[in-house]
Amino acid sequence: MKVAVAGCCHGALDKMYETLELLQRRHNVRPDLLLCCGDFQAVRNEADLRCMAVPAKYRHMQTFYRYYSGEKKAPVLTVFIGGNHEASNHLQELPYGGWVAPNIYYLGYAGVVRFRGVRIGGISGIFKSHDYRKGHFESPPYNQQTIRSAYHVRNIEVFKLKQLKRPIDIFMSHDWPRSIYHYGNKKQLLKMKSFFRQEVESNTLGSPAASELLQHLKPTYWFSAHLHVKFAAFMQHEANSKEELPKATKFLALDKCLPHRDFLQIIDVEHDPNAGDSLEYDAEWIAVLKATNSLVNVTQSTWNMPEKNGLHAKWDYSVTEEAIKEVLEELNHDLKIPCNFTLTAACYDPSKPQKNMEPVHTINPQTTEFCAQFGLTDINDRIQQAKEEASGRAEYEEEEEEEMDSTGSAEEPSEYNTDNSGLSSFNPDEIMLDEEGGDEDLSTCSVDPSPDHPPEFSTSFSDIRIMPDSMAVSSDDAMDSNNEELEKSGGSKQVEEKSSTERSLKRISGDENGNSGVKKIKRRNQAIYAAEDEDKTD
Which segments show compositional bias classed as Basic and acidic residues (predicted)? Predict the structure, then answer.
């Protein structure tokens, strides 16, 4: 079957589907499935726009709401993962995946599904070491920290995916697996994106968590986006045993949706001709979710996944064939994902804009049904319970304080400002966002189909090599935040280590020269912004 793969969509669904229709008219190519590798931007209304970590000037409604309302329907089954520019409140409703609109399916924080016998997996978000070991604790309305941490990858999702034993055909991540650039035309990559050089040479570009999954899952295809450049690689994996057959992964990173950019790729994938045309659950993945349900955490405390280190009674949560058989029996061997899409928020009405609409924490009936069917924890329900319990404790403590005040024994108020809301861990790959600054250039995406610039279908894979042990990324590396927390700002000299409090205070009050309010951007990001501005002037 033919599978279309797209990079960062940025909400431009009309243009993306128009491009697919153009392919059919001009080249007689009709994809059976469309995969999107993040920054999908399933924005339903003005409240959703407030939950996107972008400056206000980049908060455009785009066209997803037309598919959400039913005004339009996706002409091809679309499966996507989340990126770092999403309506996080909307996607958070579906932690285990679900329909965001008819014929458009979100894979959840992590997920595996099947279509025509092809096994498709993915993990949403981007990697940031300081949030990696936390639970999914965020909920709308978000603050300036949680609006970003909501889309950061967590170790529990990686741990779940690492329990899979059966082969994966296609896997998606938003950011690239770290080290993958050593298996393609690195020279050409650095020619196009010279500001990647320092991170490529130091082997710090990309996600160590995704690299760990790549080594474990060894899928036939791996697709990514995020860096807004097309890049192909071919990675030959080492066999874990003499009995294991050699495996290789074809990696492809896609560009973002812009006119005349090669943001779509068509590939031919072997499939089961006897399988139906419906999207299906994956029985092994459901069994893994059931096996790991006790590990669900909705706190922001850091914690480690079970491992064979003498500290855990159980560390292997992979499932048996018997457990998979039980899932099949529960479903009467009918794995078809129900088309149970439900509107959970008001849809944008261009004639009646509601600029003051506020986001609310919503429990989606799709998730409720899914959790009830398989005996899983509804993460959003658990978060809501935790918020109510915290609210109850706060009320009790307030009453206690009032009693103390009445007896004159209350503690004197501090003369210092105790608001530490701005003292979060500094994220070296993101700048602080306000009305005028941005994480990346997220200008309105338009993908005008051009007869002079049809998308290219061929991909060259080069530089086949075995990954040396020295490049392997362990789970310890993925959880080590020290290297990720060092910021290189503006020059080549490394900033001396400071405590996290000193760094945070410096960010709020100004630099050592007394320059307050100046945002420092990594050189790579500076170059990206400059390149994006050039795109807009072309």
Answer: 386-395, 485-510
Pick the range with the lowest mean pLDDT from 172-181, 309-318, 370-379, 493-502: 493-502
Residue among 235, 262, 117, 131 at smallest CA distance from 176 = 235
Q: How many helices (H) and strands (E) does the chain have?
A: 17, 14
What is the 3-state composition of the chain as percent helix, strand, coil, each rounded to the nearest 5?
35, 15, 55
Question: pTM for this structure?
Answer: 0.76
Q: Kindly provide the b/e burial profile for residues 452-487, where b requires at least 16 CB atoms within 10 angstroms of the residue's own CB.
A: eebbeeebebeeeeebeeeeebebeebbebeebbeb
Structural domain includes residue 449: no
Please report, for the domain that includes residue 350, its CATH number: 3.60.21.10
Report the C-alpha gap between 458 and 470 in whole angstroms: 32
Strand, helix or coil for residue 112: strand
Output the pLDDT for position 510: 42
Closest Cα partner for 90 from 79, 106, 75, 103? Answer: 106
304 inside domain: yes
Asked whether 245 and 239 are in contact (CB, 8 A), the reply is yes
Between 367 and 238, name the one with better pLDDT: 367
At how many degrees (to 10) do helices 283-291 and 321-330 cross?
110
Domains identified in the chain, total number: 1
